[in-house]
Amino acid sequence: MDRESINRMFTRRRLQRLAGLLSLALVAGCHTDMWIQPKAKPLQQSDFFADGAASRPPVANTVAQGQLRTDDHLYTGIVAKKYVDEFPFAIAKQDIERGQDRFNIYCSPCHGALGDGKGMIAQRGLALRAQPATYHTERLRKMPVGYFFDVITHGHGAMFSYAQRVDPDDRWKIVSYIRALQLSQHSALEDLTAEEQGQIDEKPVGIGIAAAAGDTHAGTNGAAAGGHTEGGSKH
Fold first, then answer.
1. Cα Dmax for the chain
2. CATH number at residue 190
3. How far apart are CA 139 and CA 144, in angstroms?
4. Is the Cβ–Cβ distance between 156 and 231 less than 8 Å?
5. pLDDT tens string 68-96
6. pLDDT, tens digit, for every residue of 201-230?
7. Shared domain check, 179 and 93
8. Model confidence, pTM
9. Kind and range of the H or E run holding 99
């Protein structure tokens, strides 16, 4: 190796060492305020705002991306200040089955599997305060579907809102299952087909069928699946 190559090698090493020393000097010169800065953590107390809370609510009338809801029928169940009497989308068998599933989770504990207000919570003490509603009164059987959707959304009486727990589509599906329950407890033998009538050993005046809205029939065991927590709750 010639003298010139050796000089270049030593020069390169000196520069590398100098760069390392400069980096150490910069790091040592940084104060902790660089990463410990004045800021508000979630739910922290604050002296800056009048309510003393660091976390701020959304600005009034603002809409988050993806949350624009202009369809009153779908999102409120109310159009022109009246409860709607039609579902905002066609109800198929799978929608009623989904409604039955959600109903059993959220509604049947209070309203019972048949929607008769005799759920386990009601049997264990809630009825001492206020009996959960049965969906089988004349008044509730005549109520528009939008009424039940509104009750699920906002709650009523001892029942709280389920808006944060059940999305709008599922609320409508629960309502469809409530309608099936109502029909199952208030139908006559004549409402059954000849084939269905042939499956009955005895012919009572009222038959427990869970007729589906739209294009389906939910079946005789649909009524044993649950009543709607939100739709009829204490209304």
1. 114
2. 1.10.760.10
3. 10
4. no
5. 889 999 999 999 999 999 999 999 999 99
6. 655 544 343 443 444 333 333 333 333 333
7. yes
8. 0.62
9. helix 93-106
